[in-house]
Write a structure and sequence with these properties.
This protein has 376 residues and is α/β, with parallel strands linked by helices. It starts with a strand and ends in a 7-residue tail after the last strand. The chain contains 13 helices and ten strands. The chain is 34% helix and 15% strand.
Length: 376
């Protein structure tokens, strides 16, 4: 057991600002001071407040250090980890109270109006350790659907939740799964994930995959059970090397734990996943072009109908959702359709992740209920 955890942002933004060197400096300094059995350094996913990176958060206090440099590490170790005194000059301004004590991050303007569902584990767990995902209820939803629910129960839950596709079109997710669900067991089917995030300035899907890759694996397995598919593909842009690496690590770990492959949770359900790298073609963000690219052909859109739910990848029934859509699924299964439907607006339920850029105070990533105004 460690008394303190030093969470260093390992998202692309902070990594490009040198967070790997900062994590290494913490490890070296902790070793030099003899704290290696008391303090653990964890490279985690994106905290969202990218404008203030590199970010380091120390638990259990929750002290949020921003714009940390390598030369600051020794002071944080000496003052905070050895003496228990947070280094106030490095704390995010809004977390320092008038009496110099540390306030909760949830009380700050940037975080207090957010509701993190898709991003719930980003910045909280080590994305390359399946045990940490499991400790935060990971794979419980998959276990629940395989042992307590029929495929139609799963589809009805997603329908009742009001979840819509987060890739832009907003098509009801449950309806898409329903269209592909016929002839379970008699026809080869596929589950695809669109991680080919090509819009300028967008990094929502990238951050989920970098910070919580197992949530996508779990959700795709649930989708596979719902429609009767045994194979999934994640189509991800090659320009996301950290996300690709962490997703592959997560897939390998899930296979090792028996959460991908044959007879998952001791049932008859078999499902596996593979990664397909995109080559930077913007058009492959369109679902039929993406599937054509997975097939090894030039990524060009196909006329519809027939829709992918009828004739998709390799001419077989296929469902395709993007990373953020899948990231909501396990929580909907665990907490119920009514819980998810209680957030957002009448026609658009739940939350939405937004990448904020340009001339604004805080560039970064936020997750807010649907219907939140631009002013807010």
């Amino acid at each position: 057991m460690f008394r303190s955890h030093v969470m260093v942002c390992g998202g692309t933004g902070c990594t490009s600002s040198g967070s790997d060197k900062i994590a290494k400096a913490f490890e070296d300094e902790i070793l030099a001071t003899g704290l290696e059995n008391e303090v653990k350094v964890i490279r985690t996913g994106c905290f969202g407040l990218c404008a203030l990176g590199p970010i380091v958060v120390i638990y259990p206090e929750g002290s949020f250090y921003s714009m940390v440099k390598e030369e600051d590490v020794k002071e944080i170790v000496d003052e905070h980890l050895l003496k228990g005194r947070p280094v106030t000059r490095l704390l995010y301004d809004e977390t320092v109270a008038e009496d110099n004590t540390v306030k909760s991050l949830d009380d700050t303007a940037f975080y207090k109006k957010q509701m993190r569902i898709a991003l719930r584990n980003c910045g909280v767990i080590n994305p390359e350790n399946i045990d940490e995902y499991i400790a935060f209820d990971g794979y419980q939803a998959l276990g629940k659907v395989l042992t307590e629910m029929t495929p139609d129960d799963v589809i009805q839950t997603i329908l009742d939740s009001g979840l819509r596709g987060r890739g832009g079109a907003g098509f009801p997710t449950g309806r898409k799964w329903q269209l592909a669900s016929g002839n379970r067991g008699n026809v080869q089917k596929y589950v695809c994930c669109n991680a080919d995030e090509g819009d300028p300035g967008a990094f929502m899907d990238r951050s989920v995959l970098e910070g919580d890759p197992h949530v996508v694996i779990e959700a795709m397995a649930i989708a596979g059970y719902a429609i009767g598919a045994s194979q999934g593909y994640v189509y991800i842009r090659a320009e996301y090397p950290i996300a690709v690496h962490r997703l592959q690590v997560a897939i390998d770990q899930a296979r090792e734990y028996g959460l991908l492959g044959n007879n998952i949770f001791g049932t008859d359900f078999c499902f596996d996943l593979d990664i397909k790298l995109g080559a930077g073609a913007f058009v492959c963000g369109e679902e039929t072009a993406l599937m054509t690219s997975i097939e090894g052909k030039r990524g060009e859109p196909r006329p519809r109908p027939p829709f992918p739910a009828v004739k998709g990848l390799f001419g077989k029934p296929t469902i395709l959702n993007n990373v953020e859509t899948y990231a909501n699924v396990p929580q909907i299964i665990l907490k119920g359709a009514d819980w998810f439907a209680s957030m957002g607006t009448e026609k658009s339920k739940g939350t939405k992740v937004f990448a904020l850029g340009g001339k604004i105070t805080n560039t970064g990533l936020v997750e807010v209920p649907m219907g939140t105004t631009l002013r807010t």
